[in-house]
Structure formats: C-alpha cells, structure tokens
C-alpha cells in the first residue's frame, strides 16, 4: 500500500497548495491513502468544519491534529462526530474527540494514531510512550498497518519514540516544527521514520507566517501577533510503501513540491 502523509497545512496558502499540487502528486505516486496534519489549517491555528470540508474535497482522506487542536472553539461541535479526524491520544480522559481511528482502504485496514510530545509543551499531557504502548497493542489486534503522527517540538523525543516503536508500527512521522528534516529512513525492524515531515503553506515565510512579523518579534522581544504569509506555496510530505501482510515499511521518501 502506498500512503502519502502531508506536513502541517498552514492557513489558506496551505489549502491552496493542496488544490494546485496534490492532484499531480497523487497521480504520479499512485497513492492509495492520503493523510494530512491540519492543526494550523484555519487561519494558521486550529480547524473549522468548513476548512476541514475544503481539505477533504481535495482528495485528502484523513486529518490529524496537534497542540493547536482547540484554538478554534468551533471544533468542539464536530470533533466527536467527524470520523476522518483525530486529535492527540494523550490528552486526559474525557477530552472531546478520539486519538486513533481505523481506516478501510481497498479491503485493507490502516490504523492511525496521533500523539503529542511533552518536552517544551505547556499542556499537561499523558506520557506518549505509555499511551502509544496501550493503543498500538489495541490497533494491532485489528490491522497490520499502523501510522503514527508524533506532533512534538523536541527532535530527541520524536526519535526516541521511533526507536521505541520500531518493528511495532509501520511509521512514526514527526510533525509540528514545520521544517522538513533530512532523515527519512527505514529503521532496523521495518518502521518508516522522519523527524519532521515539514509544512504545507507559504514558501517565503517563517514557519508559514509573515517573515517581517517574525523578525520583528525576535528583534524587539515584544508580543507580536503573527499572521499567515502569502505568496508562492510549497507542499511537504512523505510517501511510504507498506507491506499489507506484515505492516512493515518497504520505502519512505521525503517530498517537496513548489508552485509559483
């Protein structure tokens, strides 16, 4: 099975990148399943129902989230009922939404688990390693292929989780820092790994926001309201070939697409 995972979609430019760049990429790579991290899709922070529907209309099958999951209060009205959307599974018990889901793809099942890191995090989250152990065991009873979105700041935490789950899941894919890393590889026991998939949004920006405002914030150390940048767009992703019988990854390739 060939799975495409798209890095953090940031605002309208990110959604535009999906419209202009995704169809050709899906056709060229013969993709069976497309997943995207959408925690920045609505105005750079959070997700609305209209924004989610717009992304689904671009032939994206499933959405994961991260630390900005609650930035749009509207999400509380649909996160419990939208089966194509998950939030980090290590939020406390009773939190709206779900942390994992099983998707049916051409007669096969794919489990998707969303986690959030704790290093440098402001929220009080459950241990992602313990949560992963619990839910991976549950998912593996139902499907061979399991994909994890590890939304975290620290590269060490992402890499440690990758090695911790090597051979137990099909892929551990880092998101959140918006800069694609150059370490896409298959780990020793067959798990595809990358520290950060990257960002889908404005190319001439600072993590998807206007570079002038980001520079001003660094220079002045004053509170600055960052805004989503405009201009040429990029799409960062990884494409993976997964053995449907064993759940092991055969290949992972990092992708960068650009449009003027």
Keywords summarizing the entry:
single chain, alpha/beta, 6-stranded mixed sheet, 5 helices, 23% helix, 28% strand
General description of the model:
The protein is α/β, with parallel strands linked by helices and 260 residues long. It contains 5 helices and 13 strands. Strands 1, 2, 3, 4, 11, 12 and 13 form a 7-stranded mixed β-sheet that branches. Strands 5-6-7-8-10-9 form a 6-stranded mixed β-sheet, with helices on one face. The longest helix has 19 residues, at 11-29. It is globular, with a radius of gyration of 17 Å. The protein starts with a strand and ends with a strand.
Write the layout of secondary structure elements.
Blueprint (H helix, E strand, L loop, with lengths): L1 E5 L1 E2 L1 H19 L3 E5 L11 H8 L5 E3 L35 E6 L2 E9 L11 H13 L4 E7 L3 H10 L6 E5 L9 E2 L5 E3 L4 E4 L8 H10 L12 E10 L6 E11 L1
Short description:
With 260 residues, the protein is of the alpha/beta class.
H/E element string?
EEHEHEEEHEHEEEEHEE
Discrete helix count: 5
Shape: globular
This entry's quaternary arrangement is single chain
**Class by SSE composition:** alpha/beta
* Low-pLDDT runs: none
Mean of residue pLDDT values: 96
Fraction of residues in helix? 10-25%
Tally of strands: 13
Strand content: 25-35%
């Amino acid at each position: 099975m060939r799975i495409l995972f798209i890095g953090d979609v940031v605002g309208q430019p990110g959604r535009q990148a999906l419209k202009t760049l995704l169809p050709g990429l899906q056709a060229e790579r013969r993709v069976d399943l497309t997943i995207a991290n959408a925690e920045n899709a609505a105005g750079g922070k959070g997700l609305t129902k209209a924004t989610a529907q717009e992304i689904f209309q671009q032939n994206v099958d499933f959405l994961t989230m991260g630390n900005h999951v609650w930035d749009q209060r509207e999400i509380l009205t649909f996160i419990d009922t939208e089966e194509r959307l998950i939030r980090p599974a290590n939020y406390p018990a009773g939190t709206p939404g779900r942390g994992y889901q099983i998707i049916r793809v051409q007669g096969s099942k794919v489990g998707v688990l969303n986690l959030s890191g704790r290093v440098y995090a402001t929220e009080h989250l459950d241990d992602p390693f313990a949560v992963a152990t619990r839910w991976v065991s549950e998912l593996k009873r139902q499907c061979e292929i399991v994909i994890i979105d590890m939304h975290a700041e620290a590269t060490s935490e992402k890499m440690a989780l990758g090695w911790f789950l090597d051979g137990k899941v099909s892929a551990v894919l880092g998101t959140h820092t918006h800069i694609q890393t150059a370490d896409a590889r298959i780990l020793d026991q067959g798990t595809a790994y990358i520290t950060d998939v990257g960002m889908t949004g404005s190319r001439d920006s600072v993590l998807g926001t206007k570079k002038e405002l980001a520079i001003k914030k660094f220079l002045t150390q004053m509170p600055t309201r960052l805004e989503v940048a405009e201009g040429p767009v990029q799409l960062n992703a990884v494409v993976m070939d997964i053995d449907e019988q064993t759940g092991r990854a055969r290949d992972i390739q990092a992708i960068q697409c650009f449009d003027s």
